[in-house]
Amino acid sequence: MDQTTSFSEPVRIADTQAVLRGTLTMPNVTPHATIVLNGATGVPHRFYGAFAKWLADHHNIACLTYDYRDFGASVTGPMQQSRAIMADWGVTDQQVARDWLDQRFPDVPLWVIGHSLGGFLLPFQRRLDRIARVIAVASGPVHVSDHPWPYQAMARLFWYGHGPALTRMLGYLPGRFSGLGEDLPAGVYLQWRRWCTSRNFFRADFGRTLPQPRWAGVTAPVKLVALVDDPVTPPHCVWKLKEFYSGAPVETLSINPKAHGLGRVGHLRAFSRKNAALWDDLIG
Prior knowledge:
Layout: E1 6-14, E2 19-27, E3 33-38, H1 49-59, E4 61-66, H2 86-104, E5 110-115, E6 131-137, H3 151-160, H4 162-170, E7 172-173, H5 175-178, E8 184-185, H6 186-196, E9 222-227, H7 235-238, H8 241-244, E10 250-255, H9 279-283
Parallel strand pairs: 3-4, 3-5, 5-6, 6-9, 9-10
Antiparallel strand pairs: 1-2, 2-4, 7-8
Helix pairs in contact: 2-6, 3-4
């Protein structure tokens, strides 16, 4: 598609529970689709800015990127005072962001791109019939034993060593010591830890902090994308999402960065500007 000129505007999405801040990146023509991009845990929305601009410039797609409550641009007070948990991010905040975008463009097809955390909690949300397409990248339920070695050693330290110790001592998980780069609310880290160290992942929270899921609720086409060099969510964990989207036609794509002339991409860098060679495959 011919390149257009995009523009961006800051976004403030107020909910009864929280305020989310982000960016809406738009083409200078009427978009033929909109995307809400649900980011990975610990990744600020600005990281996805180049990808959002590419969507607008080359595909006439408007893209909403945003930060979950009490994180990144959405921080409103001391991190120690946050009561946010991962279910708030993955269910309520994702729903609020999607609803806001749908209301802004009610007559335009709405896509969801989910990176890691952003791709596996849709079955717990509402108004799934409004979704025209889902793309889940490096997303899926992961137990600590699923990671390959030697990364698994670092993951075990993160869950059983310095991660919980720092979180309990400081009242939040400091990004500079976690390798994430951004601070995380204690409740987010601790629920994330419980899921990733349980063989049942998040099932113990059904009907508690998570509503009961509707595994067949999404009926729009779903694309599951795995990176072969991703030690955080290896491909076999991504394919587990087929069960999460049992009511949808599901396509799978395994990407080898070397086939694109790229170096290591891993879990986080598929959306990095330097790996833009992958982007057509992500949304194609």
